[in-house]
Amino acid sequence: MHAWPASEVPALPGQGRDLRIHDTATGAPVTLQPGPVARLYVCGITPYDATHMGHAATYNAFDLVQRVWLDTKRQVHYVQNVTDVDDPLLERAERDGLDWTALAEQETKLFREDMTALRMLPPRHYIGAVEAIPGIVPLVERLRELGAAYDLEGDVYFSVESDPHFGEVSHLDAAAMRLLSAERGGDPDRPGKKNPLDPMLWMAAREGEPSWDGGSLGRGRPGWHIECVAIALDHLGMGFDVQGGGSDLAFPHHEMGASHAQVLTGEFPMAKAYVHAGMVALDGEKMSKSKGNLVFVSRLRRDGVDPAAIRLALHAHHYRSDWEWTDQVLRDAVARLERWRAAVSRPDGPAAEDMVEAVRAALADDLNAPEALAAVDRWVTRQGEAGGTDGSAPGVVSRTVDALLGVAL
After folding, report:
1. CB of 97 within 8 A of CB of 112?
2. With a threshold of 0.85, does the pTM exceed it?
3. What is the mean pLDDT of residues 152-162?
4. Local confidence band at 386 (pLDDT 50, 70, 90 cut-offs)
5. What is the assigned CATH class of domain 305-405?
6. Contacts of 388 (CB under 8 A, 6+ apart)
7. What are the domain boundaries of the chain?
8. Domain 20-297 falls in which CATH fold?
């Protein structure tokens, strides 16, 4: 599966700062100091309704992670998956009378177009669950050999008790885990499981549903968590720098994935930091497909909204905060974009070096994009009030906003 084209990232003078970011597993900020190549895995979409503003906010956060690392003169090895076979996709296809593969291709194509328009940097590897199945099957077989998996009526489950570190990503109690498991794709009430929280690794073929050859597992399809583990281990290995996604993935997805990988390899932890973006609401409720209260990037684009304004609307909220999308949020972003573009179109302005360092400092401090916007706003205000004599300043501002915020002025 191919990703989307990369926009050029301008090189800035000097060098950026190491990223200090909040780690869900420790509940505290950690300063990441990757080697020459920083390793990032971000969980991708299930392609049946893309790309809503919640998606955009999540991928915007991890685009900033990449840009901070690139500014430190590192390379970035970024991997993202596509869960292109799963119950919600199959249910949507059946509801609408569509072929599930055609629906997945259609929504993945739209997602790529939205990411391109928003100038999100693409992953080096963009891998679908279906194409990952040949690498998933041996991992499930290995977990079974290790005694960490068991069969139940043809399905294969992972035993959470096989990982002594289970629970160390989300730090939830058993009752909260059971509740979230039921809400987020698990089956805690299924009779015969060793532990209600045990997640499915391999689902035996069901009549009328797609299935693949699973070798000793029989025909079927993979569970959700093992999919990402197989892709991450194949392309990044253990101990990669950041595992990312929305805050609703901390449990069960990232918790279960970490346990799968740790049992398979005997190493701990799977990732050096687990980083989670907040949820976006509309009309007082979390934006979600099940509620149907979605604001789509593609729809805004069709209505003539500049993608740069959409990115500024996202940047106006700290990535870890939960916030609400409103018409006013978009109006404020459009107005800011107009002010910034007017400022950099002038022939000169006040010196911009302090602004560059302020943006760098803000983003290195747990991706504080609102403070980064404020730093640019201050430069624009100074230019409007006192002008300036530095003919290179507008260009420096423009390149900084492009390189670090992904916004083309």
Report:
1. no
2. yes
3. 98
4. confident
5. mainly alpha
6. 348, 349, 350, 351, 382
7. 20-297, 305-405
8. Rossmann fold (3.40.50)
